[in-house]
C-alpha cells in the first residue's frame, strides 16, 4: 500500500489516537498496545504523546479523557512474571501498611463494586472496605470514553454496553440498581426511539471486493427482501434467493421430525451445519451469514449451537418451528436463552457511557463525596473526583493502579480469621489485612495469586477462558454522509471490522445526543476476534483471537477502519482524512465471559459445572465475577457479587445462585425431551 493512498485516507493526520488493552493478554501478562506499534512498512499513524491522564477542569487526573497511546506500566512486567513464576524471585519484601479492613475486594469492576456495596448493606455503614483495582480507572470492562471539544461534550462506551432485558433480572440485581438510583423505566424517555425513523435511517450490508470480487453496498428500511437488497451485487441470483428464503421464508428444513426430534437434532449440531446440511445454504450464503452471531456471542455460525441459534432468533427457523416458541425453554439452551426467554424488553436501557453508568452509580453510593450530584440523570455528566477515592478518613476506599499479587490467610485457611492481601503500588509491594476478601477479578488470574487452592479448583479457574473482542469509538466531524446514505449502521460479513454505526441516541440530563447531521458525533465500531469457519470450540477460537488481537498494530486497525469507511460512505461525501477527528480502540483480549453451550459442553446443563467448582469459597475468600455464572451480563455480575458476600457473611444465598445460575429451576421445562 503506497503512502499516497495512506495519506489520502488521513493516516498522516495528527488526530487524537487512544489504544486501550484490558490489562490481560495471552493469559495474565498485559500487552501494552503502544508496544505493538511501529511494525514494518510505511510510517505508522501518529499519536499524541502518552500522558498519565487527562487533566480535569478541577485539576488532577481524569482517566476517561486521557490522550495518547498507553505505554507500558507496572502491569506489563508483573503480569508476565507472575505467569512465568518468576515474580517473587526479585520482588523484595512486602511492607505492611498497618491498614485493616472488614472486606478487601480485588477488582473494581461491576462485580467488585457491587460486592462492596452489598457487604456494606449487611455489615453497616461503619464497615471498613478497600477496593483494589489494577488499572487506572474503576469499571473493569465497563469502560467509558470521553471526547471533549470546544463544540460539545461527547461520551461513548469502550466496553460493557447496556442493561440487557432488565425485566429478567433476579431480585438481588433489581434491588441493587434501585439502591444506587438507577430506574430502568426512565430510559423510555432518555432513549430516542424515533431517531432512525425521523431521519429516515435504515440498515446496510457491505461486501468487500477482497472476499466477493467487487465492493457492494446494499441498503434497506424495515424488513429487507434480500433478492432486491443484493441485486447488482457479486452474489449470484440463486444464492440471493437462498439468503432471502433463509431470512424470510417459511420452509421447514427439518420436515418429517417431531418438534422434540427437531430440538434434539439442533442440540447436536452447529448453526452452520443446520444451514449447510438442512437449509441448503451454499458456500457464499454461509460466508454471508458467518458473522451474524459475532456481535452477541463473540463467535460465528460455525461455533454457535443450532438450538441457541433458533432461540436467538437467527434466520432459518420460521418454517421449522410453528408455533415458533415453546411455553418453557429447553434446559439445554445456553444461559442467555433462559435469561431472555420470558423477557420482551426493547434494547434501550443504555447510558451514553454504557454500563460505566452502573459503575459510577455504585461509586456515588459508596463514596458520595467522590461523585457529587443526585439522580441518575447526573451520572453521565458529573465527573468522579479521583483524588477522593482513597482518602485515609474514608470508611470505603478505592485504590487505583494497585494490582493484587498475593492472597494468603494468616494461618490455616480452614480456621484463619484474617487474610493478608499483597499488592503493587508505585513499584513497591504493600500488605493490608482483611477479615474477608472477595476476588472480583477474572478467574484465570486467581491461581497465580494464591497457593492455597486444590488442583481441581485451579484447573476449573484456568478453564474460564474469555472471548476476545474490540470496541472502537470514532469521533467524526458530522454524520451527514450517514444521513445522505440513509444508514444508521452497516454490517460487514467478511471485512476486518464487522459493524460500523452511529452511537445510541441517548440524552440524559445535561448530556444531549448529536441529533442533527451537522453535529459532531461518535461511531461505534466492533469486531469479535475468533477463527471463522474453523468449526473449533469457541474457547479455542478465542485463544486464536487473542493472539490476533494482541498482535495487530494500531496502525493496521486504523488503516482498515478508514478504508472501510471510505469505501462504504465515500460516494455519500464521507472523507476519512477530514471527517475523522479521533479514534479510540478498546481491545478486550479477555472480554465476554464464555457461557456454556451445546453441542460443545456435554456437561451442560446437568453438571457438574466447572464454574461451580472454580468459584468455591476457601477460608475467608470468595469469588465474584461473570465467569462464575457464567454469563456476560450486568445482572450476572451483581448476582455473583451477592452470592460471594453471602458466603462470607452467612446471609441467605440469593435466588440467582439456586440451581443453574441465572436460571430459575422452577421455570425449567422438559423442552420436549
Automatic annotation (TrEMBL):
Pfam families reported in the protein's UniProt record: NAD_binding_8
Keywords: Oxidoreductase
Top-level taxon of origin: Bacteria
Region: Disordered, residue numbers: 44-75
Coiled coil regions in record: none
A GO molecular function held by the record: spermidine dehydrogenase activity
Residue stretches of biased makeup (Low complexity): 44-56
Oxidoreductase among keywords: yes
Family annotation (PROSITE patterns): TAT
Enzyme class: oxidoreductase
The protein's name in its UniProt record: Spermidine dehydrogenase
Amino acid at each position: 500500500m503506497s503512502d499516497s493512498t495512506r495519506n489520502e485516507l488521513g493516516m498522516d493526520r495528527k488526530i487524537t489516537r487512544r489504544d486501550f488493552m484490558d490489562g490481560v493478554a495471552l493469559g495474565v501478562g498485559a500487552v501494552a498496545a503502544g508496544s505493538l506499534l511501529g511494525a514494518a512498512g510505511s510510517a505508522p499513524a501518529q499519536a499524541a504523546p502518552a500522558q498519565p491522564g487527562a487533566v480535569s477542569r478541577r485539576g488532577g487526573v481524569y482517566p476517561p479523557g486521557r490522550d495518547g497511546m498507553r505505554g507500558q506500566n507496572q502491569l506489563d512486567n508483573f503480569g508476565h512474571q507472575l505467569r512465568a513464576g518468576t515474580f517473587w524471585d526479585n520482588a523484595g519484601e512486602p511492607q505492611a501498611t498497618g491498614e485493616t479492613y472488614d472486606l478487601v475486594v480485588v477488582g473494581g469492576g461491576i462485580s467488585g463494586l457491587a460486592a462492596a456495596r452489598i457487604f456494606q448493606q449487611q455489615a453497616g455503614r461503619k464497615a471498613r472496605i478497600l477496593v483494589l483495582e489494577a488499572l487506572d480507572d474503576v469499571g473493569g470492562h465497563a469502560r467509558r470514553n470521553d471526547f471533549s471539544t470546544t463544540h460539545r461534550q461527547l461520551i461513548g462506551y469502550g466496553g460493557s454496553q447496556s442493561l440487557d432485558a432488565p425485566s429478567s433480572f433476579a431480585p438481588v440485581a433489581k434491588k441493587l440498581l434501585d439502591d444506587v438510583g438507577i430506574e430502568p423505566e426512565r430510559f423510555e424517555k432518555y432513549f430516542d426511539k424515533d431517531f432512525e425513523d425521523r431521519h429516515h435511517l435504515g440498515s446496510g450490508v457491505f461486501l468487500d471486493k477482497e472476499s466477493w470480487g467487487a465492493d457492494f453496498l446494499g441498503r434497506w428500511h424495515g424488513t429487507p427482501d434480500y433478492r432486491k437488497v443484493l441485486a447488482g451485487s457479486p452474489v449470484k441470483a440463486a444464492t440471493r434467493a437462498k439468503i432471502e428464503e433463509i431470512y424470510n421464508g417459511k420452509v421447514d428444513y427439518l420436515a418429517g421430525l417431531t418438534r422434540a426430534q427437531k430440538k434434539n437434532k439442533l442440540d447436536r449440531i452447529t448453526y452452520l451445519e443446520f444451514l449447510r446440511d438442512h437449509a441448503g445454504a451454499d458456500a457464499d450464503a454461509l460466508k454471508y451469514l458467518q458473522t451474524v452471531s459475532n456481535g452477541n456471542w463473540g463467535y460465528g455460525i460455525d461455533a454457535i449451537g443450532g438450538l441457541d441459534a433458533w432461540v436467538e432468533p437467527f434466520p432459518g427457523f420460521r418454517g421449522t418451528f410453528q408455533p415458533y416458541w415453546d411455553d418453557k425453554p429447553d434446559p439445554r439452551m445456553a444461559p442467555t436463552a433462559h435469561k431472555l426467554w420470558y423477557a420482551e424488553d426493547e434494547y434501550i436501557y443504555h447510558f451514553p457511557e454504557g454500563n460505566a453508568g452502573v459503575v459510577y452509580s455504585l461509586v456515588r453510593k459508596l463514596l458520595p463525596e467522590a461523585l457529587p450530584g443526585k439522580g441518575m440523570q447526573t451520572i453521565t455528566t458529573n465527573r468522579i473526583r479521583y483524588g477522593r477515592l482513597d482518602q485515609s478518613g474514608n470508611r470505603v476506599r478505592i485504590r487505583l493502579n494497585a494490582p493484587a499479587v498475593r492472597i494468603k490467610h494468616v494461618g490455616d485457611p480452614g480456621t484463619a480469621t484474617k487474610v493478608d492481601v499483597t499488592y503493587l503500588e508505585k513499584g513497591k509491594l504493600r500488605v493490608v489485612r482483611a477479615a474477608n476478601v472477595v476476588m472480583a477479578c477474572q478467574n484465570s488470574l486467581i491461581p497465580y495469586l494464591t497457593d492455597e487452592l486444590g488442583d481441581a479448583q485451579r484447573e476449573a479457574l484456568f478453564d474460564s477462558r474469555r472471548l476476545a473482542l474490540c470496541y472502537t469509538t470514532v469521533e467524526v466531524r458530522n454524520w451527514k454522509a450517514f444521513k445522505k446514505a440513509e444508514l444508521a449502521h452497516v454490517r460487514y460479513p467478511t471485512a476486518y471490522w464487522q459493524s460500523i454505526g452511529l452511537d445510541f441516541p441517548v440524552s440524559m440530563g445535561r448530556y444531549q445526543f448529536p441529533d442533527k447531521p451537522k453535529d459532531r458525533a461518535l461511531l461505534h465500531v466492533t469486531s469479535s476476534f475468533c477463527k471463522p469457519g474453523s468449526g473449533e470450540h469457541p474457547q479455542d477460537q478465542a485463544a486464536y483471537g487473542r493472539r490476533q488481537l494482541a498482535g495487530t498494530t494500531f496502525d493496521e486497525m486504523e488503516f482498515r477502519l478508514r478504508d472501510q469507511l471510505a469505501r462504504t460512505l465515500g460516494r455519500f461525501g464521507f472523507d476519512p482524512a477530514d471527517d475523522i477527528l479521533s479514534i479510540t480502540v478498546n481491545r478486550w483480549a479477555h472480554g465476554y465471559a464464555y457461557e456454556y453451550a451445546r453441542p460443545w459442553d456435554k456437561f451442560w446443563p446437568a453438571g457438574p459445572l466447572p464454574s461451580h467448582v472454580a468459584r468455591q469459597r476457601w477460608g475467608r475468600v470468595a469469588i465474584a465475577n461473570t465467569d462464575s455464572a457464567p454469563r456476560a451480563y450486568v445482572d450476572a455480575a451483581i448476582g455473583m457479587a451477592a452470592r460471594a458476600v453471602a458466603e462470607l457473611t452467612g446471609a441467605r444465598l440469593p435466588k440467582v445462585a439456586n440451581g443453574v445460575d441465572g436460571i430459575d429451576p422452577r421455570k425449567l421445562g422438559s423442552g420436549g425431551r
